[in-house]
Write a structure and sequence with these properties.
heterodimer, A: mainly beta, 4-stranded antiparallel sheet, about 0% helix, globular, B: mainly beta, 5-stranded mixed sheet
């Protein structure tokens, strides 16, 4: 089975901290995605990557950056966490040529 | 990017067939239609993908008319465990994975 693993299930950080959310997939997928999910807003795409060291902005990249140094790992970075970044963060991966993506369990981040 | 429109919520009863329609008027030639299911506190799960006409798998059917401006996800004989949010996505096969707000389906006993 495809496995997408997010490093933390729950995380509490202070305003202004630099936060790293890690995501690892074990199926050699080319594409990886970071979303945030807030009540009533569905999933919103933050960034995605279709290859190592490649990244593309999604719909809400402000306040975030990403890193993909290895194919299996895609990191989301909150440069200076703010309370409006309190959210559920979901990582996903998919192979090229399909829209079947596999999601991690999510990281619920609270910024206080 | 093709924008999708779905009903915000739907109610059904156990054993009924449920049809959820998604509108995507500006779908592009290279776009596929994909549906996901999401339970609370979990990531979305792929249900079905199609390009035109009808696609069926063990979980659902997807109906796509000739003009491809809409699609309908059909869930046969739903149970309480089908209560979830269902998302329709339209995009190409490479890296276009933008979700809308989804349809919250509630199945009642």
């Amino acid at each position: 089975d495809v496995k997408v693993t997010q490093s933390s299930r729950y995380l509490v950080k202070r305003t202004g901290e630099k936060v790293f959310l890690e995501c690892v997939q074990d199926m050699d997928h080319e594409n990886m995605f970071w979303y945030r999910q807030d009540p009533g807003l569905g999933l919103r795409l933050i960034y995605f990557s279709y290859d190592v060291k490649m990244k593309e902005k999604g719909d809400i990249p402000e306040g975030y950056s990403v890193s993909r140094e290895k194919k299996e790992r895609f990191s989301l970075i909150l440069e200076s966490a703010s309370t409006n970044q309190t959210s559920m963060y979901l990582c996903a991966s998919s192979p090229t040529g399909t829209t079947e993506a596999f999601f991690g369990q999510g990281t619920r981040l609270t910024v206080v | 990017l093709a924008k999708t429109t779905q009903p915000i919520s739907m109610d059904s009863y156990e054993g009924q067939e449920v049809n959820i329609t998604c509108s995507h008027n500006n779908i592009a030639t290279n776009d596929y239609i994909t549906w996901y299911q999401q339970f609370p506190s979990q990531g979305p799960r792929f249900i079905i993908q199609g390009y035109k006409t009808k696609v069926t798998n063990e979980v659902a059917s997807l109906f796509i008319p000739a003009d491809r401006k809409s699609s309908t996800l059909s869930l046969p004989r739903v149970s309480l465990s089908d209560t979830a949010v269902y998302y329709c996505l339209v995009g190409d096969l490479y890296n276009d994975m933008r979700f809308g707000a989804g349809t919250r389906l509630t199945v009642k006993p």
